[in-house]
Amino acid sequence: MCHYFFFYHSNEDSDQNSKISQLRKSLSQILSKYYIFAGRLKDKITIECNDQGVTFIVTKIKNKLSDILQNPSEETLNSLFPDKLFIIDKTT
Questions:
Q1: Per the structure, how many domains does the chain have?
Q2: Do the domain assignments include residue 6?
Q3: Chain center to CA of 42
């Protein structure tokens, strides 16, 4: 399973709902052009282009993301994502 997380600097000129709406629209447009990313891995070398789409998650935090990522803790990062998608590599 592939996970991609995109973080954007806040644009103070627009409200939260417009930002989310724009991100959804952009994601929809890019997936229609690169439909392979909306498919599912069938095995190690095959992607089934079944048009199932992708999960779109909105997380709100009170702190600056840069502050959290400077000194990340597994507990804090896992609270931002469902099903503990974010895992810190224990070897680093």
A1: 2
A2: no
A3: 21
Against a cut of 0.90, is the pTM above it? no
Q: Is residue 91 part of a domain?
A: yes
Q: What six digits make up the tokens of 56?
A: 């779109």
Q: For 11, what's the count of Cα atoms within 13 Å in the CB-facing half-sphere? A: 11
Report the pLDDT averaged over residues 21-28.
85
Centroid of chain to Cα 43: 23
Range of the domain at 69: 59-92
Q: How many CB atoms lie within 10 A of CB 39?
A: 17
Instruction: Provide the pLDDT confidence category of residue 22 given band limits of 50, 70 and 90.
Output: confident
pLDDT at 12: 67
| Same-domain status, 69 and 45 | no
